[in-house]
Amino acid sequence: MRRSKAVSALSLVAGASLLLSACSGGDSGSGNTDQNGSSTDVKAMAVGKAETGDLFKLADTPGYDGTVTIGIDDGYSGYNNQTPDTNSSYNNYVLTAVLSGTLKLDGNNKVLLNSDVFESWDITQKDPQQVTYKIKPNIKWSDGQPYDCKDMYLAWLSQSGLAKGPDGKNPFNSASNTGYDLIKQATCKDPLTFVTDYSEPYLDYKGLFNSPAIMPAHILEAKTGISDITKLAPTGDPAQIKAAGDFWTNEWKGFKADIMPASGPYKITAFDANQKAVTLEKNPLWAGGKGGPSKIVVKAMEDTKAMATALQNGEIDVAASTQPDATAAQTMKGLAAQGVVYGSAPQLTYEHLDLNFKRMFADKDLRKAFLESINRKEITDKLLKEVQADAEPLNSVVFFQGEEGYTDLYSSKAGLGAEAAAKTLTDAGWKKGADGIFAKGTQRAEFKITHNQNARRSQTVEIIISQAKAAGIEVKDETDANFLKGGRVSTGDYDVALFGWSAQPFKAESRSIYICPDKGGEQNYQNLCDPKIDDAYNAAVKATDEQVKLQKYQEADKAIADDYATLPLFQTPSMWAFKGIDRVYMQSYDGVLWNVGEWEQKK
């Protein structure tokens, strides 16, 4: 999982697949719009030009001779997007064009094999489960070195949680081990054949070894003096394991050309941290289609309204926002006369509030009262309707609306009103002071909601402040521009965190967010710990029967809701707009660059 645009986040939820039906044909700019203001043919852009069946490859197109400038909400920060301090959707939006993995998701969230690089990803044995991956011959990194089984082995070693240094601790600081931790043995049968043997069944195996997970093993070997990473089994030399873990965790930050080659259609050629801009140019050794822009500049534009204005003024060619904003949406919709195509679609991301169990929210009655005070419909009506006309509160953290398994678990818990919240506190021994705020002993019902620099989040907190105050709860707004990438989220440095989790369409990924931190919950930053949640998730992840799997995920979902631990606000819609390019679709997990290698200049 990645924190979504909020945390992007690390933004990270293992969400379920939200299928957007693809339409046929049509040229953008017809002028007709759907209920969200999207051009009628935008959904037709959700499918790759050369996509067939369950296989994805980049079409070989004439391309785009020149530079395309893209605005996104937050900036790139790290080549290794698998550590807690870098694990962000915004890194993923860039790296999807730079690093290759087994998996490609199209705009309909369809799970596809990346057939530009891989021949197969098959279950070769069911009991116990074994999965074999076949890499295509002659695939190379942009520095000329082979892309091979060693790279996949490093992805497993770094995220399995099994490696141990001299002190007995794992030196690979991975954001999540889910799925990789069930692979008991990984073997390079030959340079192009990677075999994984599982200790337990894992039906979501296709979510592993995606593009950001597979880093260049040859670079790590050269920089650490390790002759062969595949000899470094978890029981190998602890000193070498520590050297490998320290390099993997710490050295692939920002951008350094000599240690950060590309295995995708583009390579990073420049990164300006001050300007929050990263430059991509074509990878000359890419084996797939040769289309796409000659150069791409991706700029962070935290003010969505300013992003829309930049598109209007010709400063950028693509505006790609995962932070819906009504004013920005209106601006972009109004640019059709300039040849701008606008789109909006649900993402595999949900906006939510996480309550920190290590601070005052160890008190369940306070958690309960706070949720009761929040009217989420007011939030969605005021902040989302212009972007998504049918937006409504989300009532699950495991399932999205319309999915099999979705159950409304929060309408009976949130938005019950000020009187209900005040009664909950009164019955639990809290007393309202002369200032109208409840207190219990020396503890006032006073806390901060912390979020990154984001206008819509500030507006969300403003609404909550008013609602909570009526219930005798004092909420303060804390904005920290680096909240999602400066370590505060991952270290639990907050009372209430407001951000989003973004996920591939594999529910197993959400396990690391909600099970106990010492039981595999690497992304459980709020310190929630409930055996009922752990048991349900562990049974779901290992289930081989789809109905049992569904039931166990529902049990986990209900247990989280019953703990009043997290309040889902809404499934976050994206908004994007573009001009001068034939077709752009904002993939709900990988952003607009998922198929940039086949973009063409609009004629």
From TrEMBL:
* Domain Solute-binding protein family residue range list: 116-510
Its keywords, alphabetically, are: Signal
Q: Which CDD domains match?
A: PBP2_Lpqw (cd08501)
Matching entries from InterPro entries are given as: Peptide/Ni-bd, SBP_5, SBP_5_dom
The signal peptide stretch is 1-22
- Pfam families attached here? SBP_bac_5
What protein name applies here? Peptide ABC transporter substrate-binding protein
